[in-house]
Amino acid sequence: MKETVTFSKDAANLFFHILTGCNLRCRHCYINPDQHGTQTLPIKTIEAWLEVFARRSHSANVIFLGGEPTLHPDLPQAVQTARNLGYRSITIDTNGYLFHDILDKLSPQDIDYFSFSLDGATAAVNDRIRGDGAFRQCTDGIRDAVSRGFHTSLIFTVSRDNIHELPLMPSFLEELGIERFFIQVLGLRGQSAGVARKDRRVSRAEWLESVHGTAEAAVDLGIVTVYPKVFLDLDEPFECAGRVADNYFVFPNGRVYRCPLCEDHPVHSLRIEEHQLFPTEPINEKDLFALDIPEGCVMNKLIQPDNLAYNDQGDPEYKIACCLLKEELRPK
Ligand code: SF4
Ligand code: SF4
After folding, report:
1. Residue owning the nearest CA to atom 6 of ligand 1
2. Which of 107, 166, 239, 254 could covalently link to 272 via disulfide, CB atoms 3.0 to 4.6 Å apart?
3. Does the beta carbon of 20 sit less than 6 angstroms from any atom of ligand 1?
4. For the domain 2-329, what is the CATH superfamily, name and number?
């Protein structure tokens, strides 16, 4: 069964970066310390901010992120606090190193998912992107989590460096015991915004050729698979999540964005000060969300116009979808 997941308008998502430190140096890391800060938030601050968003949005989903969130020694306490505050679901995104014996300190009842990041079906490909030893650590971490009964998902960021291994992933994920597969497109943020990384993005043809087939293969093996639409035909509807959805991308320096493509720039529409949420002055990302352009996503046109194409009359050949708009394939 296939369904396009409109960024659920009845649910809120809190993407909570509780620190920006990480033990890895992935080539495509989107963390930008100049824009996001370098602090590790104290647990009291994490709990206060969780309260801020629990009050603002009923029954939100929280995703703990970093950097590497398991480097935070108080992550288990943050998870318990989120549970007590009534968050609808709790996910920890991890590179798989699972610091501070996190699997010993949480039970499968405490969190909904551990979400692992792996960018290849082999150590050779993954470790070229994520660093020596990362494949082994991540797959060991997945096996350990699965054997203890945790639900697990996996994020694979597609680039020219690994698209050839995408078709190998479904059977590998089945073997690992992964339940949900998120295929991501390489975004031009943080490290990957550098000139050397720009040519690592896959073309429209490459994306369309590989991604859907791999998603179908994963679903046939019983794995729920989610991937961004990225390219829309001109007659398909376009919507900007910044206008209609309730997403918060929160960083340790108190910046709160509604759109992840804006995160390299000081255009956040909200900020946290003294444990309260305030709107920021215009001009900010909200002013961009309000613009209607034939190419679809405004931020895409501003920061990654190379993935657009025009006909001889100067009209776009397709639109770029909101990066938060996903297709979800579920096993029948
Ligand atoms: S992408 Fe994630 S795991 Fe890799 S360096 Fe950045 S924060 Fe760390
Ligand atoms: S990615 Fe584009 S369409 Fe989506 S919220 Fe950001 S600006 Fe809006």
Report:
1. 29
2. 254
3. no
4. Aldolase class I (3.20.20.70)
